[in-house]
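task queued by scheduler; priority normal; single chain, no ligands, no partner chains; default sampling; output format set to structure tokens
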Amino acid sequence: MDGKRRGPVRVGIGGWSFPPWRGTFYPDGLAQKGELAYAARHLTSIEINATFYRTQKAESFARWHDETPADFVFSVKAPRFATTRPRLAEAGESIGRFFASGVLELKNKLGPVNWQFMPNKRFDPDDIAAFLDLLPRSVDGRPLRHALEVRHESFRSPDFVALARERGAAIVVAGDARYPQIADITAPFVYVRLMGAREAEPLGYAASALDLWAERARRWSAGEAPGGLSAIAADAGQGAARDVFLYLISGDKVRNPAAAMALIERLAGDQPA
């Protein structure tokens, strides 16, 4: 430890119900209803992606809250009904329905909301600004954190970085992905999605790659901007300690839990008390 103040680094996977994880991540014989509780004991966060496809019940969010440890945090993928439309500025009704659906039943375990745009969605400054204005900073007194996952090259613009920073929204860092990487820090937290796990690697990544991402997470958590990543603005964003949310997504999905646990092991001695 170098004595620097750090924010917590939370590492996890996308979802928890994936049949090929049974017998590879989940023990043989574990009932499906016990999978979330098992995953939450071995990871420190999970990105809920079922919310992207369909509305979930308030009872489900409450159950997920109760089945996980006290210090566990979920991120949530926002519904596609809000993000796949040609004009994001018209998403207000969908955004309102989402936050009224029961997601706040996650209570203190509700982390950032990931707003994932379609790969063909181009950067339109007016439309993006109007969309950001629709995202509530809080609901029923609970502060909210928003992350923007953009997938078109046109978003690699200083104007987009400035908009996100002005609104305090994080730009999702695409790691090992075919999507454009924008590593500028624009919010009091960092949101990373690693998509390059490989079947040939038992832990999804080579040890050197895991070491590299662990070190990047340390630097982000200390308020630094790690090198070796593609940022747009001259000031990539440095400052106070930040929370970091890092998810192993896609790639060879079977390997993602092993990769997440390997990163958690590497970061174990760095977490704030």
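post-processing summary
- The chain has one domain: 9-270.
- The mean pLDDT is 95.
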